[in-house]
Design goal:
- The chain has a domain at about 75-235: L,D-transpeptidase catalytic domain-like, CATH 2.40.440.10.
- It is globular and about 45 Å long.
- By secondary structure, it is α+β, with helices and mostly antiparallel strands.
- A five-stranded mixed β-sheet has the order 3-2-1-10-4, with no helix packed on it. Strands 5, 6, 7, 8 and 9 form a five-stranded mixed β-sheet that branches.
- Strand 1 and strand 2 form a beta hairpin.
- The protein contains three helices and ten strands.
- Helices cover about 15% and strands about 25% of the residues.
């Protein structure tokens, strides 16, 4: 009899436990989503130039870059056939297309080699030649060759040698040892305004057909008529 009562009690307890389990609310697990480890914490700016200004990466909205100034405002072009030297200056695009001035020049024929050369820092207010004579505003460009003024007996601008200005060996003739001889105005301009690195292009013949005026008359003076400072200093 006691065994039967114990069995009934066990069955009742099991049924009660099952009922409690079925009626209890079930819990819901929360799943955490981790951020990618390489996600940036803050906004990172794009590339910048050295001065801190955002760098341009191209595209239709990018402004065109101006042509950089190379410090060489002039280009010299010399035709042996026409005995001319033209000074070109830059246009709005930075190209040497604008004629600043053209001058008559004496050269040395085959002693003046064709080619492209650059002016150097070797320049002298007065330059003496071993065989005699001196010139003003000498600017070196190759070997022993210079661009310079007419010849003088001494380093006195009132002692011009007429023969080398408008005489038989004058400007506009094949009459130098290879140098380029010009009126003083032209030589002084190159001396003052065409720095080291300026290109001089020398060509045979006259590809562009360049022309120039003859040197102005001396009017009997032994002063280059384009040497305006000397003329003024001497009351002319």
């Amino acid at each position: 009899m006691k065994s039967f009562k114990l069995l009934i009690l066990l069955v009742f307890c099991a049924a009660l436990a099952l009922a409690c389990a079925c009626g209890a609310p079930q819990s819901t697990d929360v799943v955490e989503i981790d951020e990618p480890s390489d996600a940036p914490d803050v906004w990172t700016p794009g590339p910048t130039s050295e001065d801190g200004v955002p760098a341009t990466t191209g595209g239709s909205g990018a402004d065109p870059s101006p042509t950089p100034d190379d410090g060489l405002p002039y280009y010299l072009y010399m035709e042996k056939g026409s005995f001319t030297l033209t000074i070109y200056e830059k246009d709005e695009n930075g190209e040497y297309t604008k004629v600043y001035a053209t001058y008559r020049v004496a050269h040395g024929g085959n002693k003046t080699p064709a080619g492209k050369y650059t002016l150097t820092d070797d320049r002298e207010r007065w330059h003496d030649f071993p065989d005699g004579g001196t010139v003003q505003y000498a600017v070196h460009y190759e070997g022993r060759l210079y661009i310079h003024s007419p010849l003088y007996a001494t380093d006195d601008p009132t002692q011009l040698w007429p023969m080398y200005y408008d005489g038989e060996k004058g400007i506009g003739k094949e009459s130098t040892g290879g140098c380029l001889r010009m009126v003083t105005e032209a030589a002084k301009f190159i001396y003052d305004n065409c720095p080291s690195g300026t290109v001089i292009e020398i060509v045979n013949g006259s590809p562009k057909g360049t022309t120039s005026d003859d040197p102005p008359s001396r009017n009997g003076l032994r002063i280059d008529p384009t040497d305006y400072e000397t003329l003024a200093d001497n009351g002319y």
